[in-house]
Every structure is written in structure tokens, then in C-alpha cells.
Write a structure and sequence with these properties.
The protein is mainly α. About 80% of the residues lie in helices and about 0% in strands.
Amino acid sequence: MNLLSITLLAGAMFLLAVTPGPGVLATVARALASGFRPAAMVVAGIVIGDLVFLLLAIFGLGALAAVLGDLFIIVKYLGAAYLVWLGLRLWTAGPAADDGATVNDQRAAGDLLSGLLITLANPKVILFYLGLLPTFVDLAHLTAVDILVTALVVSTVLGGTLLGYALAASRARRLLRSERAARVMNRTAGTAMLAAGTTLALKS
């Protein structure tokens, strides 16, 4: 890979990450509801899912992904249902613990899983890695170093962009600390999570 390829890939990843979609909505919703750390776990799950598709594309498993098309559809609806369930929970939740509180391991695992499902079930991500990525990277001639650099670019640009959303949303949350404001934040976050689930379900 040369510098031009890396730059083009980074630019494409930034556009993919910054465009509002299920990943951005879920990240912002989690940050509004519970703060930066839980949202960062959602982002980690999203990045892991992207790396899975990156490896599928690099190792020529696009045909396998096509064969497993029905499985991806199942994952899509499971992911959408999970996000809707989280949205409904946020609507009825009380004020969340402060962002400095210790994150419960089970809840952290749930946040990680939701991020992973969002990516694995998102047709836009599947299209990018199995269809558009080869226009930026020569997948047939990647060395081990090229693969590492590509994974680093994907993780850094995608993770950094989404963490920026999470940070902005968590700071907005901290400005409103009253119980009434917390209830409004939870319902706003719940609405965003419901929108993320609905968007994921309706994407073709």
C-alpha cells in the first residue's frame, strides 16, 4: 500500500463513520443515557464488527458472505430488535449513575454486543467492505504489513469519529443534571435508539 491508498481509505472510512446511521444513533443514544464509557463500549463493538468484515474482504470470503445471506438477514433483525428493546428500556429508565461510576461488566458486555450487532447487520457496512473496499485497496496483493496498516486505519478513523460523537453527547448530558433533565435525556436517548433499530430493520 502507498500513501495515496492509505489516504483514500482513511477518507472513505471517515465518510462512512461520520454519516448518520444506526452506529452514530446508537453511540449518541448510549452517551446521552449513561455517559462516555458505556458509549465507548458500543463504539468498540462497532469497530470489532468492521474488522470482521475487513478480514472477510481481505481473505476472499465475499462468496461465503453471499452464501450466508439469509444468516445476515436474521442478524439484521435480531440487531434491530435488540436496539428497539434498549430504546424502550431507556424510555422507562430513571436517572443513570454518574459517568465516573464503575461500569458493570454485564452491562459493558451488552453495550459491546449491541455495537457488534449494529455493524454485522448493517448493509451499508457490508457493501463497503465487500464491494467498495477493493476500489481503494488491492486486496489480492496485500502483505501482512499492509493488512495491519489497513486494520489500523479502519480502527483509528472509525473509532475516533464515533468517540467524537460520544464525547459531544456525554458533555451535553453533563450540562443537565436535574432529575427532570435526566428523564428528558433518557427519552431523547431512547428515541435515538428506537430510530437506530428502525433504520437498521428498514435498510435493504
